[in-house]
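2024-03-11 09:14:02 DEBUG pipeline.ingest accepted 1 chain
2024-03-11 09:14:02 DEBUG pipeline.ingest length=176
2024-03-11 09:14:03 DEBUG pipeline.predict start
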Amino acid sequence: MTDRPFIPVRIAVLTLSDTRTLADDRSGDTLVARIAQAGHLLADRDLLPDDRAAIAARLRAWIADDGVDVVISTGGTGLTGHDVTVEAHRDVYEKEIDAFGTVFTHVSMAKIGTSAVQSRATGGVAGGTYLFALPGSTGACKDAWDEILVKQLDYRHMPCNFVEIMPRLDEHLRRK
């Protein structure tokens, strides 16, 4: 850490599930608690079924919302026919953060071994908003937050972090 000040970011949490409700959404609750503990702001929270068009529409709405800097979704990143979160995210990405999935797999390997190969965690950017798709397990959400996102969403983290380049994410949209 450096002498830089902490800059809270506004994070929306989206749970994707055909079976859960907000009342029993342990993974979403885990993310919400960690966001608050880190000093960030919960901008919004929602739960949707595994529907690619609905997920993409929700992501686009948050991308268009000036009160949301980051969206973290949980669920629907697996290999089954219902798992469409990654495709929905990629429908809205302007740029994919390829290394996010790689680093997540590396973190997961230390915890669950080769079963990490079944996850398709992904990250990207659209309209100046960061978007991350995490698996639906509470453990995966803890791992992604504790090992990657808490650091990259902290302006004090060096040598670099997502927050310091946030003002430049949409510079291509401001060009004349």
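2024-03-11 09:14:41 DEBUG pipeline.report Residues 108 and 114 are 9 Å apart (CA to CA).
2024-03-11 09:14:41 DEBUG pipeline.predict end
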